């Protein structure tokens, strides 16, 4: 440290002893007193000079000592700080190890511990005092702590571990210590790589014992010389280095200057040249053909079969572990099981041998392997492990698997036969083997355990592998094969297929864009890039070439189908319409899908596909209603659209009920076909054979019509009824099965008295009328008793449900409307305190309930009103209400039904049906003798007892074998292209092209004629999303009906039902538009399709003497508009000249 001159002097004076200073001063004073002597004065001056020098010397020594002391103190403090930091780091490291060991122990306990079978009982409030749980010594439970405690009581507190399981935590802790100590030292520098690679060739016989490939043309001496060069090259090139020009401003731009080289790629190419010479990288097929390896196939087909068997075995093992009935412990233990298997194939066999000895019976009891069957399974498992050990202990076979297909290793892995065996293997598992299900990673690990070094590199989408060797020493049958192989999913593209791919791309662009074929040149694709659709196609092709494992060869595959195009000329792509939509339309569809996922009703049209499911659309309300909505969403998630299957036992139940023909339809069909000497399906038939099939179809239609099961129903108004009237009805028509009787005005005693019922008939009636009388009833035969169920109907109507064939239910309701002229005596005012409009509400309730129950409704009765509005005395509002209530149904009675003297005939009786197909109606005239039933003529309706009858027809189709045609085209493409290139005339080229197409079709197709049921060509199935939302609406309505008094939850359910119904209506409009669009596209397909569409849209089912009409008004309107449009377009059609007909 620096001092001032005054400080230095003061320090110097302090360093002089007091006695010397006193003596000096005394001597000085004596000299001064003797002024006479000048010599004494000079001596004093000299003494003072010496004192100053002594002071300066002492000052320098003090400075040096101070500096040394400061440096020593700083060094001691630094050493102390470093010791403290080291102590802290050591403590943190020890805490980290303890934490890792504890976490691993918890993880093992969770994986190996089954769930408790019974819930742990919580302590009651009586056992709690002062907020503490006396038994558990914990704070009193609250809603928050109870939710947290669910995870704590997840497993049983007591766990019985196996003998080896107890030491697993300690082993894992040691492994983590080793990893944490060495992780920061694992840095591969060029020097370490060179040192490691020098150890590869410690065995001098490794290169000399190498076998050449059978197709290698080099001499043995040259081969060994190249291997020595391979060794030197491998050691002297340790890693990857990139050399770039320092003057490059933008090294990755298109206008870059300079070069960028990859030394690793160059090294790979050199190594391959020394190993395989002119052969280059070998494919797996070339590898197995050139080397003889024990246990490996030696042909391409055998190799592919072995790979397929290995993949199938891996899938079977995955299915075994992921079976739904398995415990969760085993579902998560597949990778650990594989690790244990590989370990057991080496050292774990000792453990299995000990268990098989009689001394180890106690351990076998722990695993449940004491039975003879389990011991036999353990012995078989041991034999499979021995076979696996022969593979993984042999570097020669492992290197062969690595050089071909690593999936072959799975072929040798045994599948567990029981859960007890898996428990045994999990106890044998150690951390020395990785827990990975990837076969390639396991093969590389097993090779590394033998010291064999490998190298990989991906170049141009191909994976290149090299087996570099190992330190050894190896036996002659265990020497690893030094070879370089390449691994791709498909072979390289041949020049012929390359030309075919180019032409296919040009044609795809020409078909999907407005560019001509000649404008699309492979050397200059600028016009294609400028086109919007062409740019999308090129971008898609670039993605296929870069990322698809098959590359551009995928374009030649039959299953190819991209988003914007496909490789077929006449096949429509399901998503090609998206290319024609504007960006605004696509954005609106995307927004609609997003709104539906959020539970909102979208604006505008609903997209055709990729819509969310109803269980996603329905959102959970907050509160206590989650359980109800959860049931609905769970049911929607599990529901499946099952097609209705015919009841096979229905005809057996029907015996004795209805007269059925002796010959069944299938037997009749078979017998008729055999009589004609024909088959039901003929290939490449002649005209005579087709005519014979048509005759068989006509006979089948006639026979099926005569033997078709039908049921008769009579709707009658006999007036005031008693037991005599009932018997009279049964005698008038004994073949009728059901009678709908109305305007009876009888009493309950007559209906309840079984003696009033005709023999063999039952009668049901609605007895809820306030005045005590019965106005409607239904009488049916007792043979139908097991198929009939009475239902509750509104008002005075009586209804039954008849279970028919093919899981159909038909509902018959007998109705009657009072017609009191005087309002004071009106039946509805006196009994219900309502006006005459109440009857229309009853009819509406019948139709609404039938739709809800999904039954086919039949309404019959006397309504005392003419719905045509011809009579002045009828109420117009009531007529409109009844027409609206019966909308969508067909009235089979089209003529007058009431006849009385001095009164004009009127049409006041009705018989409405939901499906009029193949129904017959007949007026019985029972207002005349011998019945004389109150002026009403009565009607008998004959209905099919099940679905309407289907007609047979003969269809002649041409079946094309697409795969055969595709392969045939690829095989002959070069020949046909050469022939077309040789033709200069355009007309001849077109004719030749058509000849080629006809040749392809005739060579790879057959003509098939068969008898099938007639179907409409315009019929479309209901889309799956429409069907799902309809089901959702039905389920919500069922939940509403179950809760008539729960107002709050009904309100939430009704809100959800309204939203779902709006989606259903939007989907109905969407499906109607799509149906009309399909009809329009079909009409535009050709000039002869007009009459086919008119036939389909105006077709009435007049088979077997029955008639029907189109019930949907929207469909009628659509059909009319399309017919007018087609008629309008027909005017613009030009006649076809004779030379154009071909």
TrEMBL record:
The keyword Cell membrane does not apply. Residues 137-146 have a biased composition (Polar residues). InterPro entries: Endo/exonu/phosph_ase_sf. The keyword Signal does not apply. Keywords: Coiled coil. Residues 76-103 form a coiled coil. Residues 107-150 are annotated as: Disordered. This is Endonuclease/exonuclease/phosphatase domain-containing protein. The lineage of its organism: Eukaryota, Metazoa, Chordata, Tunicata, Appendicularia.
